[in-house]
Specification:
By secondary structure, this protein is an alpha+beta fold. The protein has two domains: 23-221, Cytochrome Bc1 Complex, Chain A, domain 1; 264-309, no CATH class. It has helices at residues 62-69, 79-88, 113-126, 131-148, 152-165, 177-181, 185-195, 211-221, 272-283, 289-297; strands at 23-26, 32-37, 43-50, 92-97, 102-109, 200-207. A hairpin with a 4-residue loop joins strand 4 and strand 5. The longest helix is centred in the middle third of the chain and has 18 residues, at 131-148. The model has no long low-confidence stretch (mean pLDDT 90).
């Protein structure tokens, strides 16, 4: 049967939405473990969350480079060996760094969790930050920065954030090549020891979760090797924003990037969730009203979207 794409699919009303709440557990060393048992398939996702974001770094890119170097090997395994051993169990491991935290994520089959977690523990207790790999990472970062500085979307985002938050603030600060060149291995090791080994925020286990899963996580991360973070209060001085128009002259560009925005209320405002839904309808996905207008009604092949960015620190 040939699908007739001129006929729209039926609209079906969603009768109810059931979102499972996370269950809180406490490991032997006081680290909080949140579990969401939400799968019939024996697959699990483990998120280890640390107080190792940009907000606690001592110099630019310290948090980001520390996160990237975690998988570059330990005294026992090289980066290739770690990847090969996790791949043997069909597992996938990644690191992510944000403004306020760092996250290590492991995907694997539930039955292989006991085999995979020791490698993550190895990474968190014995990463060696090889000097050669750091130099390669720095060269790649410099090259990526040069490429980004040729992209209109990057330039307009950088200028916009600097205007909203201030150029030398947490949310308005951007890397320069000299910042990358000045990164030293010993500074990354210090950050690793202070904000990964002593900066555990919590663990989130989702997917196929049972009592055995909780026991396995406690066995691997419940020792005194890992410390709960101090829950410090971070202060942020807001930039005094005035309505203005900024123009970036890029003479060799064949297209333009435009960003329009403003400061908004925070998460505690009673209309915050409604505003998120409104933004989703307006421009939060590919079929949104903005995208429909510019592509379907005007026949243009450009991209347009809207977003609400909510930060942890009330600015």
């Amino acid at each position: 049967m040939t699908l007739n794409r001129k006929i729209s699919p039926n609209v079906v009303e969603i009768k109810s939405i059931h979102i499972k709440e996370a269950q809180e557990n406490i490991l032997s060393n006081g680290i909080k473990l949140y579990t969401i048992n939400a799968s019939n398939e024996e697959v699990i996702k483990i998120d280890l969350v640390f107080d190792a974001g940009i907000n606690v770094q001592n110099f630019k890119s310290q948090a980001n480079f520390t996160s990237k170097m975690l998988s570059e090997g330990t005294s026992k395994y090289s980066a290739a060996e770690l990847a090969e051993k996790l791949d043997f169990y069909g597992a996938y491991f990644q690191t992510k760094n944000t403004t306020e935290e760092a996250i290590i994520t492991l995907y694997c089959l539930n039955k292989h969790l006991t085999n995979c977690l020791p490698f993550i523990v190895e990474i968190l207790t014995d990463s060696i930050f090889p000097e050669n790999d750091l130099e390669i990472l720095k060269k790649n970062a410099i090259q990526n920065l040069k490429v980004n500085e040729e992209r209109n979307s990057y330039l307009v985002r950088r200028s916009f954030n600097q205007a909203i938050f201030g150029e030398n603030t947490l949310y308005g600060s951007y890397l320069k090549i000299t910042d990358i060149e000045s990164i030293k291995r010993e500074k990354l090791v210090d950050f690793y020891k202070n904000h990964y080994q002593k900066g555990f925020k919590y663990i989130l286990a989702s997917g196929y979760v049972n009592n055995e899963t909780i026991e396995t996580l406690n066995t691997n991360f419940g020792s005194n090797t890992f410390k709960v973070y101090d829950n410090l209060a971070y202060k942020y001085i807001s930039n005094n924003v005035k309505p203005t128009d900024l123009y970036i002259d890029k003479s060799n560009s064949v297209q333009s990037a435009i960003r329009i925005g403003r400061r908004l209320f925070n998460r505690n405002h009673p209309d915050f969730r409604e505003m998120q839904l409104l933004n989703l309808i307006l421009g939060g996905y590919f079929g949104s009203r903005l995208m429909k207008n510019i592509r379907e009604e005007k026949g243009l092949t450009y991209g347009i979207y809207s977003t609400i960015e909510a930060y942890h620190i009330d600015a």
